[in-house]
Design a protein that fits this description.
- By secondary structure, the chain is mainly α.
- The protein contains two helices and no strands.
- α1 packs antiparallel against α2.
- The longest helix is centred in the N-terminal third of the chain and has 33 residues.
Length: about 90
């Protein structure tokens, strides 16, 4: 495995871990709301921001992983002006 591929895989899996941590943090804030430790208004903003960040970062990590690993059978993420995630 060459260095660029290994670095790309490490970066993409790192993004996926960050997305998972953001989702877990949103879950932690929701549990704090259930226990009454934090106000609902503040919690809603924090949860929405965490879930939005998890969605964006997770999507980036997934697309980067697909680009680095390369998918077979003519499918893949070709981010030129051609196809993007399709045949």
């Amino acid at each position: 495995m060459d260095f660029r591929r290994a670095a790309g895989l490490a970066f993409s899996y790192g993004l996926l871990v960050i997305a998972l941590l953001a989702a877990v943090n949103a879950l932690r804030v929701m549990v704090l709301v259930l226990f009454g430790s934090i106000q609902v208004r503040a919690a809603v903003i924090v949860v929405m921001a965490n879930l939005g960040a998890a969605l964006v970062v997770g999507t980036g990590g997934y697309v980067a992983r697909q680009r680095v690993r390369g998918t077979g059978a003519g499918y893949g993420a070709d981010l030129d002006w051609g196809r993007v995630l399709g045949p």
